[in-house]
Amino acid sequence: MSAFKRKRGGKSNDKKAKKVKFVAGGEETREQAEQEKKNEVTIPPPVSMGRWTNKERVLIFSSRGINFRTRHLMQDLRTMMPHSKADTKMDRKDKLFVVNEVCEIKNCNKCLFFEAKKKQDLYMWISNSPHGPSAKFLVQNIHTLAELKMTGNCLKGSRPLLSFDPKFDKEPHYALLKELFTQTFATPHYHPKSQPFVDHVYTFSIADDRIWFRNYQIIEEDASLVEIGPRFVLNLIKVFRGSFGGSTLFENPKFKSPNMHRREIRLAAAARVREKQMVKELQKMKRTEAKEDVTTDVTADVFLTPAEDKPVHIQTEAPEPKVVKKNKHKAFKRQRMARR
Amino acid sequence: MLIDSRSMESEDEDSLLGESEEEYSELSDSELQEAFAKGLLKPGMNVLVDEPKKSVNNVEGLKQCLAELRKDLPWVERLDLTNPPAEDVLSKAEGKAPNPTNGDVNAENDFQREMFFYRQAQATVLEALPLLNKHGIFTKRPDDYFAEMAKSDQQMQKIRKKLISKQMIMEKSEKAKKLREQRKFGKKVQVEVIQKRQKEKKAMMTAVKKYQKGMTDKLDFLEGDQKAGKDSAQGPKKVANKKGPNAKRKYKDQKFGFGGKKSGKKWNTKESFNDVSGFRAKVAHAKGGGKGGNKGKGGKQNKRPGKSVRKKMKSRS
């Protein structure tokens, strides 16, 4: 018996009573959802009921030399975006425009490419292949889905709401980036792998000249949110006219390459050390300098008062001998004092 | 400190620095003096950097690119919204004036920054929910809709455990603090109670002594706490007694006891000697008649046997 090929587009209305199989917490197919349609009014029709027109596919892959955090981030993005495709790691030897070919092979029209340098810095390329613009970012502050502080959860493949900062409309390069993000991250309507609910929201905000990405789960209708993750910060480097190449449309003046940043820190430290050494040397020199003997005291004649010259008297005769009185018979001192 | 090389205006400097732009060489003394005169120097080492390159900003190109990139999709496909953050309920409640001028959120202040993002998301959600309902897209997931989640059940278990353990730790520390406080308080209370008891005992003893020495003939110290009623009765009498012992004497009595010879009360005084109220003439002048008359008849009524007889009795028994 040949398999009955189900046509998309809302024709198969004859799925009625299907036996219910309860698999606790496991995957349930969309037929289950239809089964419950009879009980609850709020269950949406399965995704296959609608026509999937917006054929957007995103290729997510990386170069070699990424670390565990980047790998998890990539996996998380693939989980969150059902319209994504994965590919093997690209060799660094190949030039960047090879990525375009890979995209074509996979029939993708957007690409998120993660490039790791020095096992420390992570760069992210987002591009619309084959013709469209592309942008390169430096990724910082990566937190993945698996972090225990992110307590929210969402359906795998549910469509996200996208929330942008009003600052995105003010600058032309931000407007271009906003369009690129929207087309890349928004899950197409009626995508076969998507879920019919909208239960989480992506936030793109601009602070400190960087783009901050957050993912929140919508718990209640009154907009109480819990963070799901992942989260990262994008620092724009350049926007190119073509995909992974082409002329530069915009260059971020405030961007400092991580190498430069590290170098500056090192130089500042070195400068401080050098300064200390210089000071020490100066001190040493001062100490070992030949000290001048101070022979003439400049302040010596401050209090000199020249006296009058006495006439020189030369004695020609010897002086007379003194009369020596012996035994004066002085009374005792006590008696003397008493007498007084 | 980073001195911009182009800001040095001296001619000598230009030629010097033109060569050494790429090197991070130190400035010579004259240059330093110049910079100091201009007020450019700050304490610390001065590192030379070159002026930032003019960055490319091809606005036209960007706009053109954007126009090419744009796909005319209905909102349902994109689900994007641009909005400023929602009202800051917390700061309003605290009474801080919301600052609309401060558009730039301080990226360093973690809490403020995260709240900013949170509020932005909230604003989006609040705006988007009615729109979604209009387009027929559901946001509420029913309880029995089981589907694969982004985080596995195991992961959620771990998260839950971590939260619970954090709560437990906090509770434990709270309990320990309370216990410590209680112990301190209990000790204080204990000390107070002991002191009170000692005071009461002392007061009681002094009251007893007072009575013994005859200063007060009332035994109301035995009743203890019922002084309130008696006090009002004693009111007028107290005034009369004020002239008795001096205030100073009273204070000293209270503090040290009553001083003087304690037990001279058993000796005769002039009054007690001259007191003949206890004299019974009949008893005094009876000449032992009662006892003598009985000698013939009831000789052995109260008579004690002699020593030898007693001894015999003793030995016999």
Automatic annotation (TrEMBL), chain B:
GO biological process, one term: ribosomal large subunit biogenesis
Compositionally biased tracts (Acidic residues): 10-29
Predominant subcellular localization, coarse grouping: nucleus
Annotated family: Belongs to the EBP2 family.
Ranges of biased composition (kind: Basic residues): 239-252, 297-317
Annotated Pfam families: Ebp2 (PF05890)
Organism: Labrus bergylta (ballan wrasse)
Region feature (Disordered): 1-29, 225-317
Keywords per UniProt: Coiled coil, Nucleus, Ribosome biogenesis
Gly residues composition-biased segments: 287-296
Function: Required for the processing of the 27S pre-rRNA.
A GO CC term assigned to this protein in UniProt: nucleolus
Protein's recorded name: EBNA1 binding protein 2
Compartment list: Nucleus, Nucleolus
